[in-house]
Design a protein that fits this description.
The protein is built from four helices and 13 strands. The protein is an alpha+beta fold.
């Protein structure tokens, strides 16, 4: 059976469409029928109950917004009828006491790392950037593209063009010949040698 919709958290009062739906369609979900009042595109949400203006809207089990107008069950949730809002939050108690653990069982053992110039050692670390909502996927890709090129990890292309040297020479009133002789092509090999963080393997 194909899953057509999703409720992220049991407390949620909005439902996510996993495919495009048309106005007038009836969605059967968790023992209830929802008549859609509008077209609902894939990855967008529709109301699982009636909202009055000012009612809080819950997703992921927490408040994500407030209804700007009355929203009926099956109506599409959008920026036109919902404004941003969040629930109260508090910072838990911080524990700063720390006891040195017993590391005797690791004595004499080694690990796969690298030596730093200051005598310390480092390990490989992975940072995972996970978007919590569909609409952030493209933003994450944009960040990756920007960082990959500027930090020297863009190796999928045969070359890339860097116009910054041309701009700098123009601003310094360099001669025409000097500007024309400026190398603006960067090959994957050049970018690898000029990485800002030589111990970072890549951005994927």
């Amino acid at each position: 059976m194909i899953v057509k919709v999703l409720k992220v958290h049991p407390k949620d009062d909005v439902i996510v469409a996993l495919q495009n739906f048309s106005e007038g369609e009836t969605i059967h979900f968790e023992g209830r029928d929802y008549l859609l009042k509008q077209d609902v595109p894939v990855k967008h949400k529709f109301a699982a109950r009636d909202f009055e203006a000012g009612d809080e809207i819950t997703m992921y089990g927490v408040t994500i917004g407030k209804a700007q107008t009355a929203i009926s069950t099956g109506e599409r949730i959008s920026t036109e009828n919902v404004s941003h809002a969040s629930g109260k939050y508090e910072i838990g108690r911080r524990y700063t006491d720390w006891e040195i653990p017993d590391i005797s069982k690791f004595k004499g053992r080694t690990f796969n790392g690298f030596h730093r110039p200051d005598g310390k050692v480092g390990t490989r670390n992975y940072w995972l950037v996970i978007p919590l909502v569909f609409c952030e996927n493209r933003n994450i890709q944009t960040i990756q593209d920007a960082m990959s090129e500027q930090l020297g990890y863009l190796t999928e292309k045969e070359f890339t063009i860097d116009v910054n040297p041309l701009i700098q020479k123009y601003q310094k009133e360099a001669s025409v010949d000097d500007i024309l002789d400026t190398d603006i092509l960067k090959t994957p090999e050049t970018m690898r040698h000029n990485r800002v963080f030589p111990n970072v393997e890549g951005i994927k």
